[in-house]
Every structure is written in C-alpha cells, then in structure tokens.
Amino acid sequence: MTEMSKKDDTLTPTTDAQDQMVRGSAWMTAGSIFSRILGAIYIIPWGIWFGSYFFQGNALYGKGYNIYSFFLIAAIAGIPSAIAKQVAHYNAMNEYGVGFRLYKHGFVLAAITGIVCAALLYFGAPLFDGGDARVVPVLHSLAWAVLIIPVMSLSRGFFQGYQQMAPSAISQFVEQLARVLYMLGSAFIIMRVLHGSWITAVSQSTFAACVGAIAGILTLVWYYLKNRPTFQNLVANSENQIVVPAKQLYHEILQQALPFIVLGAGITIFQLIDQFTFFKIMRTTGVTNETVLNDLFAMFSVNANKLIMITVSLSSALAITAVPLLSEAFTRGDKRDLSKQITNAVLLFEFVMIPSALGMAAIAHPLNIVFYGVSHKALATAVLAFSSFVSIMLGLFSVTSAIMQGVSQNKRAVRYFAVGTIVKLALQWPCVHYMGVFGPLVATMIGFVVANVLIVSWLNQAFGVDYQGIAKKTNGILGFSLIMCLLANMIVRLVSSGLGHIMTVDSRVGSLIIVILAVGIAGYVYVYFVLKTRLADTVLGERTARLRRLLRIK
Questions:
Q1: Is-contact 282 138, C-beta < 8 A?
Q2: Residue 321 pLDDT > 70, yes or no?
Q3: C-alpha distance from residue 351 to each of 19, 34, 326, 343, 468 (Å)
Q4: Chain Cα centroid distance, residue 323
Q5: Alpha helices for 10-95 (secondary structure H)
Q6: Domain extent at residue 237
Q7: Where in the cell is it found (predicted)?
Q8: Could you tell me if residue 400 is inside a domain?
C-alpha cells in the first residue's frame, strides 16, 4: 500500500463500494456543508452593513448570481464530472496513463470554454439584465470568476476520478472562506467607511467569487505537488495496453460532458425561469411596485434558497461521489453491484436529507430572523418552511441524475429533465398568478417530482431497485425525523415563551439561542434513535459503532 493510500482517501478502488461511497460522501458533504454554512452566515453582518438596502441588495445579488451560475455551468460544460467518470473508467482498467491524458486535454477545453463564456457574460451583460440596468456591473464583476473556475473544477474532477475527495472538499472550503472574507471586507469599507453606493458594494461582493477561485486553485496545486510521486508511480505501473488518439479523447470528454451541462444546471434553469417570469406575472395581478416585487423575489429565490441549498448540498455531495463508483461497476458489467449502489445512494440521501429538511421547516421562524431580520417575518417564515419541503425534490434530482450519468444514460436523463421543465413552464403562470410568492416553489416542486419519478422508474426497470428494503428503512428515517421535527417545534415554542419574560424573542440574539437549543436537542434525539435501533448501521456501515461508543449508546 502506498503512502497516499493511508491518507485522506485511497487512490485505488476498494472492495467495499458502500464503505467507499460513505467515506467519499463524508469528505464531499463536509466540504460542501461548511462552504454552504459560510455562504449563509456571511449574510448576517453583510445585511447589517447594508441597512435599509438589505433586501434590495440581496435581490440584485440573486439576479446576478442566477445568470452567472448558468454561464458558469456552461463554461465548466460538465467537463469535471465527465473527467471524474472517464478517469475512474480507465483507472478500473489499470490504464492510469490514459486518465492523465484525459486531464490534459480536458484542461485545454476548460480553458477555452472559460474564456468564451466569460467574454459572452461580460460583453453581453446588457442583454441579460432583464430590464434592470443595475445588474450589468454585477455581471461584469462575475465574468472574471467564469474565466478561471472551469480549470479549478476540472482539477477537482480529476481527483474525484481517483475517489480522492479530500482535495475537492478542502479546496471548496478554502475557496468559500476567501470569498466570504473579501465580501465582508469590501461591503464594510464601501457601506460603512466610505458610505458609498450599495450597487458598488454588491458588485464587489460578487467579484469575491474570483478571489475565492484563486484561493481554491492554489489549494489544488498544493495537493497535486504533494501527491505527484504517487500519481507518477500509478502511471508507470499501468497496463498501457490502450492507445486512445487525442481526437477520440476529446470526443469522449464532450460526449460525456454536454449532458452534464443541462443536468448540472437543472436547479439553476428553474431559478432563471422564475427570475424572468415572476415579475411579469405578478404585475398582471396588480402588484407593480418594484420595491415590493424585489422584496418578494429576494424572499423565495435568494433568502430561502440560500438556506435550503445547505441541505441540498448534502445530496449534491452524494451525487458527485456516486458517479465514479457507478461508472466502475458499469464498466465491470456488475448489475448486482449497480443495484446495490443505487439503493445505498438513495438511502444515504434520505438519511441526511429528510431530517434536515423537516428540521429546517420546524425552526423556520427563528432561523429566518437570525439570517434576515424581522422584515416580512410572517411571510418569510412561511416561504422558508415551504421551501424546506421543496428542497427534498431538488436534492433527490441531484442524486438520481448523477446515478443516470454514472450508468451512461446521460441523454435519457436529459430527456426526463426536459419533461420536468415543460411541466414547470406549463404550471408557472397559473401557480404564480394564484399563489403569489409560493407559486414558483409549487411549480418547481411538481416539475422535479415528474423528472424524479421518470428516472427512478427507468432505473428500477433496468437494474432493479430494492424497494422493499428502501421502504422499510425509509419508514424508520421518516418516523424518527417526524419525532425530531415535532420536538424541535415544541422547543421553539417553549423557549420563546420562556425567553419572552427576559428579552425580545424576535431578535437575532434571542432567535439564535432558540435555534441552537432546538437543533442541538432535536438533532441529538434523531442521532440517538438511529444509533440505538441500528438503523444507521444499515446505511453508514460499521463506522457507527465508534460513534455509539463516543455517545455511550448501547
């Protein structure tokens, strides 16, 4: 065993696919969760410094970021996930040299797509502002990130192809940390020191994406230099029986990558539909005040979305981990292992997503105040609670679409997503017209339900899904999650009543105390039940024994 295989993650496949998936998911989940938490916590001081411009600034930030996200996904072009899948494919055949050539050619493609998409975003910004000229400088600042992030994402995909999840996770966290520090620093200086324009402050906050990307790239370079001897050893000991021409390598990358654009941008595409239709539809209902419309848009598309994406990132981490593992099993033609891994991925998704979503809904009121203050608190709480339930469908799509990609059903997955998108478009007008701010969320949920049902049905037909085993464990997860949800809601009510005698409950400090107590106590109860009943063992494997000993649960 090499030195690297004793550290972080192993470079070569293990015999226990479930254990490998859990370990890889742990790294990706940790990196994604910490990054998402950082990306949510910054909003507290950021909002304080923006003062009365907070909701307007957040709406502008969201408008720019939704467009940027689509261009970024187009620039990345699914190449990192495609590289991860193809590298894992050739590594399973002990052809590590081919994997390195794939990375080099992918690097060229990523650089080209980054340059093209950054130029389109920068010079075409007036075409994408949706009638709001304030969006243009925000898009200009984001174009620089589009220029360099594709290369960084490609490098993460290369490490993931070796089931090396630690470099991706740590670089993701470093990227986010640098981004948040720059955002807060620039916002404070512009708004509080210079008393400048809030539009300029938002533009600098979005430019922080470029600063973070530079930090992320430097982290990956350090990891590569550290592990280069092991990589070279693997290449030297490859079979070297396959010679793949450069033209074929490019073809393989693009063939695998293009569907990743659509599937990777799935949630973003739905958000763009909301961004370019919500204002027009709402005006037909008689709501024409731009400030009110921006506040409503910020409420469901930016504020609530920022928080639910913390939980959705859990499933995204699972999705990234599943692709190379499924690709290896598919390459071996092991249908039984494929069925088992699909079942494991779904169960692991449910194990973390269901309690997270229900828990967030239970504490929506104090959680919303902690992050966004008391503006529109009743409506904002309802939107956040409903968004928490919608997040389950968003997360499930991340997992099911990744599974389809792992078994080389990219085109089929795109077709199923297209059906879901058509459903979303068909329902958008009536939902928004009659349900207002909840309309886009309802249309989104139904659209993803349709896409998920189509994908799961096909997977069951092709490989067989252990529905009986999944249903039994799902009942346990759902039951314990509901107990946790009810307990969290009870704690919120009791603590709010008690704190009301000594301090203002609807304040950031009071709400933070309530959130900490509710999450801590209710979360522990969920963990206790899944460990005590051994439900966690069937999902996470033998690692739970150590956690039981740590928590002194017999």
A1: no
A2: no
A3: 15, 19, 20, 12, 16
A4: 15
A5: 17-41, 43-50, 54-76, 79-92
A6: 17-257
A7: Cell membrane
A8: no
